[in-house]
C-alpha cells in the first residue's frame, strides 16, 4: 500500500520514491506519494516524476482498487526505479485554500440556516457548492460570503488527526455531507477548523484560515427545492 505523505504533511512539495509497479507503461504505483488522487470532491494533483534526467509529467492521479495510480505522459519508468516527485504546488495550494474555505462556509451556512451540503466540487479556479437551504435569497447568501471573508481574516488554526470511528461519530457536526458517509473504517481522519468545524475528511488543507485570503461569489443558481448552488473563487 502506497504511503500517503500528503495526508500528514499537505505542504510537502518534493519527495523521493520508489516505483513499485508500472502498468501499460504509463500507470505508475509508488511506495510513497505526495500526489493527491482525485476523490472526495477534490481534483487530483499534477506534477512530475523525475528519473535521472528524464521528466515524466503526472497528468492524472486516481485510486483504483485501493491503489494510488499515477498516469504519466510517456513510457520508460520501470519497477524499482528510484525517482523524485515534484508537485505542481501552485495548483495544489489553490485547492488546499479553497477546500478549507469550503469547509468553513459549509459550517457557517449550517450554523446560521441549518442547511446541509449535498455536494461540492473543487476546481482549480472555482468551487461549486450545493446545499439544501429552504429559502433561496441571493442577498442573504452574499451576506454569508461576507461573513466568511471576515472569518478568513482571523488567526484560526486548522489541524488534522485520526480518531477511532466510535469517538469520531460522537461529534455532532462530524459528517455534514448529507450523502457521502465515509466507508466503514476503524479510524476516521478529522479536519478541524478550531472553534468552527470538525469534519471527517481525506483532503489536503491549509494550517490557518488566513492563508485563504478572500473569496468572491461568482454565481448563484436556484436548482429547485432543496437544491441551491453557489460558485465562488479565491481572489
Ligand atoms: Zn473536505
Overview features:
single chain, alpha+beta, 4 helices, 15 strands, 38% strand, elongated, binds zinc ion
The shape, in one word, is: elongated
> Which cofactor or ligand species appear?
zinc ion
Output the number of helix runs: 4
Radius of gyration, rounded?
19 Å
How are the strands ordered across the major sheet?
Answer: 2-3-7-6-5-8
Beta strand count? 15
Helix content: 10-25%
Mean pLDDT: 92
Largest sheet: 6 strands, antiparallel, barrel
Distance between the termini: 38 Å
The low-pLDDT segments are none
Please identify the structural class as seen in this structure.
alpha+beta
Q: Helix and strand succession?
A: EHEEEEEEEHEEHEHEEEE
Oligomer: single chain
Bin the strand percentage. Answer: 35-45%
Describe this structure in words.
The chain has 235 residues and is an alpha+beta fold. It contains four helices and 15 strands. It has helices at 5-8, 89-113, 138-151, 165-168, and strands at residues 3-4, 14-23, 27-30, 32-33, 47-51, 54-64, 67-72, 82-87, 117-122, 127-131, 158-164, 187-193, 197-200, 215-222, 228-234. It has a six-stranded antiparallel β-barrel. A four-stranded antiparallel β-sheet has the order 9-10-15-14, covered by helices on one side. A hairpin with a 4-residue loop joins strand 9 (117-122) and strand 10. Helix 2 (89-113) crosses helix 3 (138-151). The longest helix is centred in the middle third of the chain and has 25 residues, at 89-113. The N and C termini lie far apart (38 Å). 31% of the residues are buried. The mean pLDDT is 92.
Amino acid at each position: 500500500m502506497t504511503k500517503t505523505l500528503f495526508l500528514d504533511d499537505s505542504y510537502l512539495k518534493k519527495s523521493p520514491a520508489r516505483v513499485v509497479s508500472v502498468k501499460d507503461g504509463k500507470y505508475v504505483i509508488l511506495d510513497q506519494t505526495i500526489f493527491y488522487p482525485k476523490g472526495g470532491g477534490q481534483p487530483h494533483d499534477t506534477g512530475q516524476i523525475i528519473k535521472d534526467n528524464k521528466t515524466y509529467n503526472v497528468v492524472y492521479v486516481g485510486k483504483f482498487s485501493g491503489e494510488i495510480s499515477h498516469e504519466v505522459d510517456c513510457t520508460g519508468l520501470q519497477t524499482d526505479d528510484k525517482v523524485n516527485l515534484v508537485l505542481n504546488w501552485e495548483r495544489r495550494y489553490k485547492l488546499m485554500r479553497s477546500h478549507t474555505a469550503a469547509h468553513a462556509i459549509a459550517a457557517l451556512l449550517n450554523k446560521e440556516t441549518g442547511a446541509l451540503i449535498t455536494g461540492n466540487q473543487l476546481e482549480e479556479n472555482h468551487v461549486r457548492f450545493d446545499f439544501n437551504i429552504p429559502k433561496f435569497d441571493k442577498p442573504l447568501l452574499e451576506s454569508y460570503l461576507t461573513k466568511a471573508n471576515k472569518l478568513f481574516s482571523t488567526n484560526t488554526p486548522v489541524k488534522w488527526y485520526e480518531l477511532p470511528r466510535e469517538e469520531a461519530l460522537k461529534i455532532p457536526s462530524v459528517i455534514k455531507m448529507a450523502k457521502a458517509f465515509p466507508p466503514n473504517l476503524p479510524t476516521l481522519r478529522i479536519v478541524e477548523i478550531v472553534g468552527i468545524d470538525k469534519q471527517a475528511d481525506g483532503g489536503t488543507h491549509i494550517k490557518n484560515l488566513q492563508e485563504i485570503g478572500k473569496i468572491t461569489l461568482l454565481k448563484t443558481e436556484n436548482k429547485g427545492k432543496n437544491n441551491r448552488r453557489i460558485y465562488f473563487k479565491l481572489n
